[in-house]
Every structure is written in structure tokens, then in C-alpha cells.
Structures
1.
Amino acid sequence: MKFNQWTLGLAAVGVVSLASAARADETKMSQVQTALSNTTLSGYVDVSAQFNPGGGGTTGDFFPSAYPAPQNTATGPNYNLGNKANQISLNVVDLALDKPLDESPWAAGYHVELWLGPDGTTLGTSSSDSQAAIRSAYIALRTPVGNGIDWKIGVFDTIIGYESLTSGNNPNYSRSFGFNIEPTTHTGALASYKVNDIVTLQGGIANTSFDGSAYTAEINNSGANGVNGGLSSPTLIGGASLTAPDSFGWAKGAVLSGVIINTSEGTAADGDTTGATSYYVGATVPTPIAKLKFGGSFDYLNVHSGGNTWNLAGYSTYAFNDKLSLNLRYEHLSGTSSLNGGAYTTYADYYGNGENNAADEITATIQYNLWANVISRVEARWDHVEHGNGYSSVSSTELNQSEAWLLAAQLIYTF
């Protein structure tokens, strides 16, 4: 046993004995080992190759106007035309440490998840040029009220939306329009209560702010985008989900969920104030054909200072076997002009004709898991702007095309 100089000095004058100090150190080590024994390490490495026929490049020339980025960045983990077009890319390395809640009435645990790589800049939880960011970091607690209330206190993923920040949990490589008109991360407190096997309720409060064009995570009320969130102008989160029981036959396991997130007006750097409310309804439904599943979602974003955007999406998945599946998605996005010109709520700025606009997209993704622990995908996507031109060609920075194509391949190794 090696002792530090302070302990040796106390032992020399008889204040402590080396034997008791050794026992104390062993007790501390035992406590640390016990705490870590239930901690798990997991994560994934996400890479892709992307080809954009007729347009693209690394300067963002092909960035479609119909793709506002998540949170407060212009190159989010959505379509990534601006910084990933026509090249092979590392998307992100995800590392997570977990100590999940056990079944005890006063259970406690934690979750820490980090993003390393280009997509780390998209979360709004670090400086804009940093490729290392906090994806989530919260303390998990349970209070024995009724069936037990589970808490997340810290930084956590939003509860709104059909798609996840974790690409491997989604049916497609590219993100949806709906994903990009939702917040992605919150800092605050979230409570979940399972009423029974059918009904689950969630509610919380967060620092998230909205600057007129994007949500911001606002870790420690950092004031990103010049907007102050926090308890003085809080974001309120509420949601409920229904899960079909076994008595529903082939429809058992179907999930219907609804979420409302209201971000109050905050004070912007230029003195303007704004806020937004997001509404979401989504469902995933099995079918009598066991291999076929459908899903749907509706997002509505209302900017308090004026304007709105809504998106309707439909999903289908057909699993040919345990390894091979086909995933399809169709969306229609529509926006009206916003008083503050927010990217989510107006596309007139991109065309110069003052028109409100709409966009459609169709995505087809084939997933085949050839290697153990590896998700492998190929994807084709077509986008179309209904009025004007939302996309540029390789040779021009002008928006001179009304449609865009994406061909992509993706590999994700999970551990």
C-alpha cells in the first residue's frame, strides 16, 4: 500500500495509524469498484459516403433551402449536403457511460454520452468549432410516488419527434424535414410516469431557447445565438403515449404519442423577443403481415412572432428476414412567412419572389446487416421544392434547380 506524504506525516506524529489509513483506502476503493460494477460502456462509430448528382461540394452550395438545421447550426446531422456532399465522411463517434435505474423505490443512476467528430458541432452544446460535444449527461432518479416517477436532471434528448439523434435507431440515413423543425436536446429536468402498461406521461422544464430560426440547447444558460433561456423564460415540455396491449392481437405494441413543447420569449442580442411552440403527433403500427410496419408523424411549429411550418410524414418498413429490410419515407413540408424571417418559417428569402413555399421528399433505404454489430445501408433520396429553385448546381452558387438527388451508403459499428 502506497501512502501520500500527508498521511505519512500524520502517522509520524501519532494522529493516525498506517493500518487504519490502509483500511480507509481499501474501503474507498471498494466503494468505487461497487459503484463502477453496474456501469456499462457503449457507443458506435458512424461513417458514410455521399454522392449528390448535379450538385454538391464542401462549401454548402448545394445546401437545400428546405433543410433548416437542427438547433443552431447550418450543417446539422440531417441531410448534410453542405459539408458531406460527394465525399466519404466520418459522421460521429459516440461514447456512453450508463448506470441504469434498478427496481428499488429510491433508485439512482446516471448517463453520460459524448459525440466526437463533425456532427459534434451540430448539437449546440459546445463552441461552434468544437468537434467534441455533450450529447447528453444527466442524473437519473426515482421517487416512490404511485408507480414511481423516473427523473432525468441535466442534459437529455428531446421527447418530441419520430426520429432520433442516434442514426442507427432511425429507418433512414438522412433525417426528415420533421426532425429539423424540432428541438433535439434540452438542459433541465424531465419526469416520466408509467400509469399502467398502456399509458405513460412525461413532463419537464428546460433552458431551451428559440431565436426565430432555430432551437438552442442552452447548457448552463449559455445564451447561444444571443438568446437567454432558463427559469426566467422557461421551456415547458409535456407528452403522453399509448401502447396497445396484447389483447389488440396483430396490432399489439402499436404506439401513439403526442408532445407539446413551448419555449417562452427570451431576450435576443438585438433586443427582439421571440418564442415558439412545437406540436407533434406520431404513431407506429404493426400490420397483419408480421414483416410489414407503418408509421406516421405530424409536426407543427408556431413561431410566436409570426409564421408557422408544418410537416406530414409517412414511413413503412418491410423486413424480408433478420438481416434485410426496406425502409420508405414520404414527406410534405409547408411554411408561411415569418415576421423575423426565420429559416424554419419562410422560404421566400431563398427565391426573392415573396412566395410562401412547400417541399416534398421521397427516401428509399435498403439495410442489410452483413457483419456482426454493423448496420449497413444504401439510400436514394429525391427532393423537390414546389415554387422557385431551392438548390444549386456544381458550377453555380445560385439557386437554379427545383429538385435534388442524394445517393448514400452508411456503416455504423455499435458496441
Note: The chain has four helices and 18 strands.
2.
Amino acid sequence: MDLSRVIIGSIVTEKAERLKVQKTYTLRVASDATKIDVRNALKKFYDIEVSSVRSMRTTTKTRSAGAIVKRQPFKKMLVTLAKDSKQLDISAFKA
């Protein structure tokens, strides 16, 4: 997989902001991305050392009255950085 297309963006929620204190970042990734792809992309494009990666998929959220889709399914990963690693800045992409 092309590593420049692995990380789509960061997820900004209250829980994600609380986890940043522990150096854990929540990232939205491509649906076919693996933990190894995410680790390699962060190392290559952001110069960050990763200690652990946790993966999860969110399901479609539909309305109970019918087939109205309120949220599309996507894949996200919780990335914990190493102790000596700098903070993650998604806007600092290095090509």
C-alpha cells in the first residue's frame, strides 16, 4: 500500500483530546491499512517513534425509522508514541 495514503486525518473528540496527555493519538486511516502500514507511515512522514498501535472499525449508524445513514463506516487506530518521541502534528507532513 502507498504509505502517503494510509493516514487520512486525526479524530477530534473529547476522549481523543484527553488521550493526548498520555501521548496516544486517534487517527482515521484507510480501510485496508494495517498496523504496520500506520507505523511505517508515521516514521517516514512525521519522524515519530511508535510504541503501540490499536485498531478498530466503526460501523454504520442508521436511523431507526428506515435506511437513513447518519454515519459511514470507517477504520481508526489509536497510536501510542514512545517516551522519547516528539508530539504528533498532522499538518507537518514531510514528502
Note: The beta strands are 7-10, 24-29, 50-58, 61-62, 69-71, 74-81.
